[in-house]
Amino acid sequence: MSQNRFHPLSAYFRRRFGHRVRKIPLDAGSSCPNRDGSISVGGCSFCNEKGSGTGQAAAMSLTDQYLAGRERILAKGGTVRFLGYIQSFSNTYGPASRLRTMMQALEGLPDLVGIAVGTRPDCLDENKLDILRAAPFEEVWLDLGLQSAHDRTLRRINRGHDAACFKRWAREAGERGIKVCAHVITGLPGETLADFEQTMAVVNSLPVAGVKFHNLYICRDTALERDWREGRVELLTKEESLRWLVRGIALLRPEIVVHRLGGDPAPGELIAPDWALDKAGYLDAARRLLAHEDVWQGKALGLPLPQWFNPEGGKHA
User: Domains of the chain, with CATH numbers?
Assistant: First the structure.
């Protein structure tokens, strides 16, 4: 098994609850101000019209989606509890009453210990954060897209908000005890490794409890695809992407939980690079490079081996 040279979500959940916790993706049928014309109609340049959506909202309620996902996982056996991940598009967009209704729909469901709500920082306000703080779950995560700490990059990818917006609402959420999971992307157009290092420094400076690393890839029917085909975007090689990832881990505060190390294109949507289809191979290569370079989370900050470091490997790696 690979070494736990980073702080994985699976290990965090086992320490917190004493057994496995699995995420169940949920689709609330949300929209996005960067697509409906409030900000833009094009969306972020890397995002297609699905917005990581499943389309389940059209046929099933949040409650039914959760119960169906729970049944599928429990059929495999073992002791497991669940975290409902409201993933698609921007789930705090719209009136606060809509968010409250989502929380009420999930309240009291069997084996549900927590929720994660995916959104944009410009779709938050104090009222919505108070609703999340009061949600009756043991864990409340706010999956918040940063992508880059550089406003020039955010403009280039048509993000629709600046880095200051992310900083403000990450702080506001952290002050309320909501766990913020920041999303960052390696290899964004025009960025260097030094730019990515500065993004990691911003993440470290904020009350961020988790991070998701995404390697940049080209989805079908996106603005990024057009830019790439016209030669305006250069993708990292697999080796370069892995080195950026390992550097990001080395620069990350050890207590921050790593929710994921790489992106996961949906079937049929990937245009390039081909190696992004092999998620398992990418993750295995990342773990091997961490071991080969003797890197652990926080090493570049001058910090010692964390308590969760497991040199012998194990089930949480």
Answer: 9-298 (3.20.20.70)
